[in-house]
Design brief:
- There is one protein chain.
- The protein is of the alpha+beta class and about 300 residues long.
- Helix content is about 20%, strand content about 35%.
- The protein folds into 2 domains: about 170 residues, Probable tRNA modification gtpase trme, domain 1 (Gyrase A, domain 2, 2-Layer Sandwich); about 80 residues, Elongation Factor Tu (Ef-tu), domain 3, CATH 2.40.30.
Length: about 300
């Protein structure tokens, strides 16, 4: 991937959290420290059930007097509804922003084209929107949130070439990065199985938030036995949810895929043992990304 490119992510959207109580309101709900979010710094976080299971994940960035949550467009209404349950007397407003577009900007020179350093989560104003180094992993490039009717013009002025979603998706898969509910099952998935610790989605020092107790217990008791991992697919790509087996025994299941790359939730033990994995009519070869502390989690 030699050229700096952008792709509009049609499946992503923005929910704004405004009002004088926006920070204390979010602080008691999300997995990362909202007090660290600033005009020049974005963070990755999740909203969980009271039992510590995944509901939504998002990039949090400050824009003016609001916190923008960049997340799945199709589930914006659900995120707004769930946050509203906790609003009570807090002085906050929650608004979907259909006029804002989200883009991924990636490739050699992409961060420099946006005027960004290579610091994780670095953010700056871009037109009437913002650009941020992806706070999960710098290898993902950047996210830009712009007025939908101005996006192509802004990117063209920056010398960025439009790419296709499949190119970005393949890069994401090769790095082992989950893509919302394509890879994480609402009310079932556990953050540490999906790499949220290594991908900077959890602050272990902040105060209480919804679902914190189970998340902390999982980490400190070493209870992570499965990991969401990239896999090379040899054969027809298995559909999401296809059972993965090793020696006839179930060891995981497929999640999203694109071509010969996919993500699968796999038991750590057979992966470390190098056992042959199958899903449907395909063989799977697990890939351990450089950022993933697989052995550490397996040892508990």
């Amino acid at each position: 991937m030699n050229d700096r490119s952008f792709v509009l992510l049609q499946d992503r959207g923005v929910l704004t959290v405004s009002g004088p109580d926006r920070r204390p309101f979010l602080q008691g709900l999300v997995s990362n420290d909202i007090e660290k979010v600033a005009h020049d710094t974005a963070y990755y976080a999740a909203l969980l059930t009271a039992q510590g299971k995944y509901l939504h994940d998002f990039v949090m960035v400050e824009a003016g007097e609001s916190i923008w949550l960049e997340t799945e467009a199709a589930r914006l209404g659900d995120l707004k509804r769930r946050l509203s349950v906790y609003r009570l007397r807090a002085k906050v407003s929650l608004e979907e922003q259909p006029d804002l577009a989200v883009a991924a900007v990636f490739g050699k020179g992409a961060l420099a084209a946006l005027g960004l350093s290579d610091t994780l989560g670095a953010a700056r104003v871009l037109g009437s929107g913002v650009a941020v180094v992806d706070p999960r992993l710098t290898a993902l490039g950047a996210r830009a949130i712009l007025a939908r009717d101005r996006a192509w013009c802004v990117f063209g002025d920056l010398g960025l070439a439009e790419s296709d979603f499949e190119t970005y998706d393949r890069m994401r898969l090769s790095l082992g990065i989950p893509d919302g509910s394509r890879d994480l099952v609402p009310e079932k998935s556990i953050l540490l199985e999906a790499g949220f610790d290594e991908l900077n989605g959890i602050d272990w020092q902040k105060g209480c938030y919804v679902g914190q107790e189970l998340t902390a217990r999982t980490k400190y008791r070493g209870l992570v036995r499965k990991r969401l991992m990239p896999v090379k697919i040899h054969g027809p790509a298995p559909a999401p949810g296809t059972v993965v087996t090793a020696g006839g025994h179930e060891v995981g299941e497929m999640r999203s895929s694109c071509g010969e790359l996919g993500l699968a939730l796999l038991r750590v033990e057979p992966v470390l043992q190098g056992r042959k994995l199958e899903a449907g009519a395909a063989n799977l070869a697990p890939i351990t990304p450089a950022w993933m502390r697989l052995q550490h989690n397996a040892d508990g």
